[in-house]
Write a structure and sequence with these properties.
It is built from six helices and seven strands, in the order H-H-H-H-E-E-E-E-E-H-E-E-H. The protein starts with a helix and ends with a helix. The protein folds into two domains: 75 residues; 129 residues, no CATH class. Helix 1 packs antiparallel against helix 2, helix 1 packs parallel to helix 3 and helix 2 runs antiparallel to helix 3. The protein is elongated, with a radius of gyration of 23 Å. With 211 residues, it is α+β, with helices and mostly antiparallel strands. A hairpin with a 3-residue loop joins strand 6 and strand 7. It has a seven-stranded antiparallel beta sheet with strand order 1-2-7-6-3-5-4.
């Protein structure tokens, strides 16, 4: 294997390592595209005489095998997330991908890829806007377990606070936040737990949409 193919294989290995740690959705598409492009480059090198056909074919097969292994891993590791999303859509939740600053495992903030779950809110709800978050530095009423409620345009009813306290107790260390404006109530969630946890989040959204 000459220096060209060694470089191709090294770049592909670096890409795989990067894809394992990066927080972005549909990253499997980048792996598949890179495997195809790098294989084409290696075979092109053989076509113009830069490398032997045997070496280029072996390299292409190796990268294709690594790509298939990665896709299998990605499918298995994201299965609970996909089940949660499918169930939420069946329940009528509007789901979208976004990024948001959330508490990391060490307690500090980190920007992560999350799902935004949304339901319409009852017109005329009070407060007009609010947010339930667990990030350090967020001002508002303390609801326990590090969660705080920040409101704008009115006070939250005690019944609504009771729902939020229940969420704070059940989702203590979860990457989850709620907020609402006059039109809808939203949950920003690092999906896990499959259909059962999606059912929980949907139930919370339904209860909060009444206020």
């Amino acid at each position: 294997m000459n220096n060209f193919n060694q470089g191709v294989l090294t770049l592909f290995a670096i890409l795989l390592v990067f894809e394992f740690v990066v927080e972005t959705r549909r990253k499997w598409m980048w792996v598949a595209a890179a495997a195809a492009l790098f294989s084409a480059a290696s075979l092109s090198a053989a076509a113009v005489g830069m490398e032997r056909w045997g070496a280029s074919l072996a390299l292409s097969a190796s990268m294709s095998g690594l790509c298939l292994c990665y896709l299998w891993y990605e499918r298995r590791s994201r299965r609970p997330e996909k089940l949660a999303r499918r169930h939420a859509v069946r329940l009528g939740v509007a789901v979208a991908d976004t990024e948001r600053v959330m508490p990391a495992k060490d307690g500090g903030p980190e920007k992560v890829a999350v799902a935004r779950y949304a339901l319409p809110r009852r017109p005329g709800g009070s407060p007009r806007s609010w947010m339930l978050a667990r990030l350090e530095g967020v001002e508002g009423a303390d609801l326990g377990h590090g969660w705080r409620l920040r409101t704008g345009g009115g006070e939250a009813a005690e019944a609504m606070k009771a729902i939020l306290r229940g969420i704070a107790a059940q989702a203590r260390n979860e990457q989850l936040e709620f907020e609402a404006d006059e039109g809808e109530v939203r949950a920003y969630w690092k999906e896990w737990g499959g259909s059962d946890r999606a059912e929980d989040v949907h139930s919370w959204l339904q209860a909060l949409a009444k206020y």
